[in-house]
């Protein structure tokens, strides 16, 4: 056997050992149920004592019973994320169920940390996202349709059915996806209205009106 082939075999052997060790390390604990009494860090919540983990940590009752409402947008939702579903911590997945009423919409938003895929249970919905080169990708979805949103891009949902509520199930590639609504961000802050107007091409009066609506100041 030539020295070159021998060295390649040795490198391959150590590479396989490293892969094995990494897998053993990642699987050292079967799960990391969130300790919600501790602060959340960049990697999620710390694990709670395994002896206190129960089946209820991996269970969420009736996701289709909406628990949070957004009257301004005619939207209601249930969030299956780590803060209310601690067994998801570290698993890299989560879900939302939401309903969009007639003439309702989910305003332009981004989820910087996660990709998303949705399934339309019932209704007709216009959905879309805008790529980083400002190209729009959008589609009208109906019962049974599925649509994917790439990580971090601006996107939206509009109920385009004239007489019925749209019911949607969404899944994410993070156990606690961050959500940032565009309008809330520009109008719900404490930047001076003149500054917001300057950097958004909106007029100052319109900014003040939006700030009053979304809880901003100055």
Task: Summarize, please.
GO terms for molecular function: manganese ion binding. Disulfide bonds join 32-47. Helix 3 crosses helix 4 (204-214).
Mean pLDDT: 85
Helix content: 10-25%
Oligomer: single chain
Largest sheet: 6 strands, antiparallel
* Annotation field: number of helices: 4
* Percentage of residues in DSSP E strands: 25-35%
Note poorly predicted spans: 21-27
Protein name: Germin-like protein
Subcellular location: Secreted, Extracellular space, Apoplast
Disulfide bonds: 32-47
InterPro entries: Cupin_1, Germin, RmlC-like_jellyroll, RmlC_Cupin_sf
Spell out the key features of this protein.
alpha+beta, five-stranded antiparallel beta sheet, 2 domains, Jelly Rolls, 11 strands, six-stranded antiparallel beta sheet, 218 residues, single chain
Describe the protein in words:
The chain is built from four helices and eleven strands. A six-stranded antiparallel β-sheet has the order 1-2-3-10-5-8, with no helix packed on it. The protein has helices spanning 3-26, 182-187, 193-200, 204-214, and strands spanning 68-70, 75-80, 94-100, 105-110, 116-122, 125-130, 136-141, 146-149, 154-159, 166-172, 180-181. Residues 21-27 have low confidence and may be disordered. With 218 residues, the protein is an alpha+beta fold. Helix 3 (193-200) packs across helix 4 (204-214).
